Amino acid sequence: MRRLMIRASQWSAMALIAAVPLTIAGPAAAQDPTFFDNQRGVFSFATGLEQSLPAVVQVTTLAQSSGPSSGDSEPRQISSGSGVIVDAAQGIIVTNNHVVEGGGKFTVDLFDGRLFDATLVGTDKATDLAVLKIEATGLAQVEVTDSESLRTGDLAFAVGYPLGLDQTLTMGVISGLGRSGMGDRIEDYIQTDAAVNSGNSGGPLLDSRGRLIGINTSILSGGGGGNDGIAFAVPTRIMLYVANQLRETGEVKRGKTGAILGSLNATRARSFGLRIVRGAVVEDVAPGSSAEAAGLKRGDILTRIHDRAISNAGTVNATIGVAAPGTELAVVYLRDGVEARTTLTVEDSTTKDVAVGAEVLIGRGASVRAGSDGLVVFAVEGGSSAANAGLMAGDVIRSVEGRRVSSLSALGQALGGEGRRRLSVERGEETPTITLD
Description:
By secondary structure, the chain is mostly beta strands. It is built from nine helices and 31 strands.
């Protein structure tokens, strides 16, 4: 059965019934109100969770109708999801980018039945996050905790408005951490088996004390599109960085190091003579970059960064992407099978718009390698102008602004500077034109 990554707002209904036995030591558990309600004599997590439920909202995205009916000017609903209030005083709500994408108007339904129009503060496609703002009093806000403290096996609760229902809470466990490699976005997901369905997108993932640990964003599903018990959430470590930048400037500026990375897999591991299949391969290093200063070279295999194990290139991109310029990141890598250590300094992403290495170019979010067939795109950064324009891995770039390019240096000169660039590419038997902002 083919497995697909499907956004939460696109899922179809599927019943999920799970019994989760709890074994709690008698006297100690009976005295802890987090787990045992002495008055009712039942195990319950309601005490911690009920404090956060009023902060979970329903988000409806509307756009102007283009139909010929008499109601042409009336907004029509194009999507619906969930969100969570993280700052009650300012009316700040975090949700998913794909919940608000394409919208011209947004409304927020509160837990207490009130309805408000919302203003879109900013969006970030690379992390699938968005920030909304409402003008309201008497709001509740969720307590945010550090997602770095999570452990596989911790209980987790998903809250939202799935399948047209009112606010719904489901329970599961953290079934994995640091998940990535499922797309072109900045990925470092929390994996859980808490039931999540259409309408849960943008809603909170809470711990057993009701504290926010992540924002539900997608599931891994079989061909039927239902909930197979594998859902993913953006951790608060990334959410806080993105939300703060969107609130401050309306956009997210990411750091970089000049290392152009690919993911290690079984095939590449065999070619390197390695007995590991997790890591990030240095494809090339931009001249004058901090990666070059750190001594990294093409073919090095990164295995740890900032004391975190590296699953693939997504792990590195997620760590660098939420680090402020000037941050020093300790790196462990393999070179010819021998382990070594160095320190990468995060650079401002605006220092260079195009970096050309000996065999690889990176510019406007596209990583390009010179091959026998020409200039081949082998990676596209999520949320970049290349990704937004529809450039894809495997595309062969033939010309820029009508002028043929046959070398990395020529492509670098053509892409450098400000303004739009029209690229003619080969994609199988097609020759689409890609316009990069």
